[in-house]
């Protein structure tokens, strides 16, 4: 029985709602059929609301990294100058992709746990450095830091550079306004706040970006956005898509539309607030400062003398709860609690209750119930 009672609280893949699982279990349909075209069209109408864009959003059958590669492959030619704003592991990955395509990358690292400093961006963009693109991460999953995409977008929009945003662990859980915030390419993926299994990337492309994409002569095939656009005109995809995930996406978007995006965003902010209050009540500290705290994932420093991975091991082996560990330079130093997508108040209560037990088992002086109580108080509106 306990093998099926698992509590997955990592920043992707995330739990999938039963109605989405049911939609994915429907009979297969042909991807060149009228039924698929109707499905694709319904998805398009809804996903544009999530992206807050009037532009096309392409649904590609690959992981989030494939979506990031699509953005780079269609924009960057060898020798192009690119500015990379790095706040952790995923900012570094975006940079590596740009390098792989021959970009000359100007890297600015703000430190793991810090957010992008707009004054640095302003300085970098001043004096006409000739950047073709600026790379930014909306929600840095490795550190639980939320970056100010509206602020970055306002600065980049004053230059000829395109703004490419990795929104993989944010879109669907954290507000983003692609058009209004001057985001030229926005990428997300299915397995984070979108409540689906892994396997789809979604990518919105602005008209400003299209001017660059059409002129770009760098090689691309599976990742070609012009090919994707030609197919979307017929509510089709260039190659065989993951049809089951498209069916699931339709259902997941219905759930979001029914809840209302404002409510979805408020739910995520509330969960983050509760988690932060709870870990502080246990004497632990979130990695990110309050002003840049991610609504979808919270990274927590492990206490002095306790390894973060030891806490995770007890949680997993004794309680069936999975938290994520640290990546890169934060390995063993932090654990990360995801509260994204199909996540609610009781998930936080459960995760924090488990954390208290794991800390106690490892001999850390913890007042049982203190974290749970802090979270409950946030949910009851008692600690405004
Ligand atoms: C998960 C994640 C990715 C990578 O997505 P994959 O689907 O694993 O390729 C990229 N960026 C961010 C911010 C992520 O959280």
UniProtKB/TrEMBL annotation:
Cited InterPro entries: Aminotrans_V_dom, Aminotrans_V_PyrdxlP_BS, PyrdxlP-dep_Trfase, PyrdxlP-dep_Trfase_major, PyrdxlP-dep_Trfase_small, SP_NH2Trfase/AEP_transaminase
GO molecular function: alanine-glyoxylate transaminase activity; L-serine-pyruvate transaminase activity
One of the GO BP terms on file: glycine biosynthetic process, by transamination of glyoxylate
Superkingdom to which the source organism belongs: Bacteria
Keywords, ordered alphabetically: Aminotransferase, Pyridoxal phosphate, Transferase
Residues modified to N6-(pyridoxal phosphate)lysine: 192
Record: residues binding substrate: 336
Domain Aminotransferase class V residues, every copy: 7-327
Cofactor(s) needed by this chain: pyridoxal 5'-phosphate
Family: Belongs to the class-V pyridoxal-phosphate-dependent aminotransferase family.
Protein name per its UniProtKB record: Aminotransferase class V-fold PLP-dependent enzyme
Origin organism lineage: Bacteria, Bacillati, Bacillota, Clostridia, Eubacteriales
């Amino acid at each position: 029985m306990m093998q099926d009672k698992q509590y997955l609280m990592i920043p992707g893949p995330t739990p999938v709602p039963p109605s989405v699982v049911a939609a994915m279990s429907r009979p297969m349909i042909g991807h060149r059929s009228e039924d698929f075209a109707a499905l694709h069209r319904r998805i398009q109408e809804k996903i544009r609301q999530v992206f807050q864009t009037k532009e096309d959003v392409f649904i590609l059958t690959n992981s989030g990294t494939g979506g990031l590669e699509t953005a780079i492959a269609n924009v960057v030619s060898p020798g192009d100058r690119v500015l990379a704003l790095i706040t952790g592991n995923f900012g570094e990955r975006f940079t590596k992709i740009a390098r792989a395509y021959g970009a000359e990358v100007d890297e600015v690292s703000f430190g793991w746990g810090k957010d992008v400093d707009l004054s640095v961006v302003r300085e970098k963009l001043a004096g006409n450095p000739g950047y073709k693109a600026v790379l930014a991460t909306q929600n840095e999953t490795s550190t639980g830091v939320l970056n100010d995409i509206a602020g970055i977008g306002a600065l980049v929009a004053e230059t000829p550079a395109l703004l490419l945003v990795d929104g993989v662990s944010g879109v669907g859980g954290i507000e983003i306004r692609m058009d209004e915030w001057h985001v030229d390419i926005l990428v997300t993926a299915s397995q984070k706040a979108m409540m689906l299994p892994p396997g789809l990337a979604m990518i919105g492309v602005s008209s400003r970006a299209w001017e660059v994409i059409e002129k770009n002569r760098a090689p691309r095939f599976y990742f070609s956005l012009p090919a994707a656009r030609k197919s979307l005109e017929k509510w089709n995809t260039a190659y065989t898509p993951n049809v089951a995930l498209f069916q699931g996406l339709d259902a997941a978007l219905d759930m979001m539309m029914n809840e209302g995006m404002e409510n979805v965003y408020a739910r995520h902010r509330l969960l983050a607030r509760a988690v932060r209050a709870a870990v502080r009540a246990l004497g632990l500290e979130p990695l990110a400062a309050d002003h840049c705290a991610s609504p979808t994932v919270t990274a927590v420093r492990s206490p002095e003398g306790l390894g973060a991975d030891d806490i995770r091991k007890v949680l997993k082996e004794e309680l069936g709860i999975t938290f994520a560990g640290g990546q890169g330079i934060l390995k063993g130093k932090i654990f990360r609690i995801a509260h994204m997508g199909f996540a609610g108040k009781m998930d936080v209560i459960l995760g924090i209750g488990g954390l208290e037990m794991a800390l106690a088992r490892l001999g850390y002086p913890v007042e049982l119930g203190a974290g749970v109580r802090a979270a409950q108080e946030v949910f009851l509106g008692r600690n405004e």
